Amino acid sequence: MTPFVADVLIPVGKIVAVILYPMVMVVVMIWLERRVVALMQLRLGPNRVGFQGLAQPVADAVKLFFKEDIRQRQADKLLFGISPVLVMASSLLAFCFLPLGEPIRIGTYTLTLWIAESPVGLLIVLGLSSISVFGVIFGGWAANSKYPLMGALRSVVQVLSYEIPLGLTVLTVAFAARSMDLVEIVRRQEASGVWYGFLMPVSFVVFWISAVAETNRAPFDLPEAESELVAGYHTEYSGMKFAYFYMAEYAHMVLVSSLVVILFFGGWLAPFPSVKALDFLDVVPGFVWYLVKLMFFLYLYVWIRATFPRYRFDSLIRLVWKWLIPLALVNLLVVVLVRYLL
Amino acid sequence: MPEDQADRPELRELLAALAGRFAGAVLASVVDEGELSVRLSKDALASALRFLKEEAGFNALEDIAAFDNLGSAAEGGQRFTVVYRLGKFPGALRARVAVDVGEGESLASAVPLYRSADWAEREAFDMFGVRFEGHPDLRRIYMPDEFEGHPLRKDFPLAGRTGGA
Amino acid sequence: MELREYDLNMGPQHPSTHGVLRLKLAVDNEVVLGVEPVLGYLHRGMEKLWESLTYTQVVPLTDRLDYIAALSNNLGYCLAVEKLAGIEVPKRARYVRVVLAELQRLASHLAWLGFMANDIGAMSVLLYAFEAREDVLDLFEEYCGARLTIHGIRIGGAVRDLDTPLVSRIRAVLERIPKRLEDVRALLDENRIWKERTVGVGRIAAAAAIDYGLTGPGLRACGLAWDMRKDIPYSSYDDFAFDVPLGTNGDVYDRYLVRLEEICQSIRIVGQALDGLPGGEFTAKVPRVLKIAPGEVFHTIEAPKGVLGFTVRSNGTDKPERVKMKSPSFINLQALDHMCRGNLFSDVVGILGSLDIVLGEIDK
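Predict the joint structure of the above. Result:
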């Protein structure tokens, strides 16, 4: 393998992959959401464009691409333009640090299934995904209109509040794995034989609820509640800018679901490794397991959306400050104590 | 035929009390099919409504209907008749109070007694031009604020006026 | 930095105002200080129009008032005209009218359920409720060909008699609807999120409700058992046994429960009416050109939205002198301000949904 291939082509290829992978997942998510929600609501959903409606997202993308980009005269041009980009970029950047499987040997070259590995990968991913809040504030403010502003304010308070239990539960995982390196966390789960989701179920549940709130998804989707604020902070956006917000929301969902899989459900590990009867499944590569688990959590997102009413804003905030944060704190304490006493 | 109300003796007593109280003002009255109907002179409206609400217990103002008497055999000789429909629940008694009012004159508002009169009076004002003294916010309710004319008057054309708002 | 209240405008185009209604809200941060509805966007001059039409020609136009429950408007108007003209409707037609009116109540409440749940975020309930409503609308279509603006109740009776196949189809639908309702109740009744959004929200005390002239399920949710079908029965309603569901707190949750229970009671009434359908003549004899001697009548019915009343004044010709409609939604909407004060902005949508208004009826 020439140095050119190893040092230039492959990294560039990986970067392209890291941009494409969330985009492909977004496309899948768009279809999944509309079809699954529809079937849960006793109707069919998109099933005309392509086989079973699978080309529907393509049709949506084409439509959004050709839509007029309406610009308010009073909108702050810089902020108005930059906010969709911020929201999208923060999600995409975080994907660089997500490991999808064990490194693959190709001859003498080891192909790592991630772009970057860092000893504080977990921290970096969380930090990057938090930058999207800026995009929301800028978007709501720049549109110079009441509804987006209210939506943006609500969204910011929601996201900031739910970051806290998110961080606290992630700390328990870091504790259990003695590391903040995402690859290391998965390897630790492999070594200990128990996935952290089963070892620390409270952490998982609190993380999951916070994750749903972080991504502004139902039942915490008040900032974009159609029936109340028309469309919240992205009301005034149209065309490609709106498409960015739309895709960024799904990309963020995929990011967070990937985190759940890596942190709590063994990433690329196969289930029940010690059971001899299931050894035939060993031929399935790690990253397929990862995808299967990822799809389950994405399906869970959609299922929850179709089922529950929306939380009102004050209930939402009360839930996090009165219940989730104390619970997460207590949970952290218990995990630390157990770790040191055992 | 919708079931006739049996003739209610309470209504006859009520009529007697009303006639006694507002001797000069009761211009006509009848108790028919379970409903008391009185025509009052407009000055007695406020106190009669108060009597009916507070002493006779008619707690519901069901409707306020205005009529334009232009061209028809005018009942009291005045342009407009405003009919108040009161109800007493439980008990299901009904009272109809009619007052005549001329063009440009005004009636006492029933809003201090019955809050449900608020929009009904605004509607009467909007559609007929009858004013109500003491109404907290008497302005048009259906037509745009700057509209001229009162659409339900008999001399307002059905198709509207060309160039009207 | 100075914090001050500001005015927010909802509508007239807004996903949750149930029609073209404009709400001006005075909001302090998120707390609502006052709501002022602005009406007239759907004003079509119905009452003026009716004065130029014959009594029979008015009936199809009444469909367009509360367009979610067209048959109720038909019934209200026809009963008023029949009272004025002295037309006696035979018993069979009265029972058929009860069947139609109660089926219409079912359809109206199911539509309300779907819309209100959707506004609060439970999107799937919208679809479930409308699936049930579709069954009822299919019945109407089979009865007279129309689903929404039905014009099925006419002066003197109804458009046609109920024949045996239709009766059995009605019974089949009545079997299916409670199952769908159970699904909805399982999703919402004890759901923590639903209760947080509805219990204690938009409360109105009984005394204030009477003062504002609130009628219908909104009033009954405050604990007052006022129902025209029981208080001043019409069209043989006193032949049927049914309960009037009551609430206690007068909040959104109670209004929700009251209407759900009313659906069950309507099913009960239709069952009894179909069982006891008398024989005999179907319609009354109404002259082709109906001229009514001068007089005035006020007649009310219990429409799904509240007490619907018609004042009809005749002048001896075949056209009414004046028809005034007492619209339940018009009067109920006045209480919106009272109900919303002190609640959060997100609650306005839920409270408006629980009032169950229709702009066609409000704006005429």
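Residues 3-341 of chain A form one domain.
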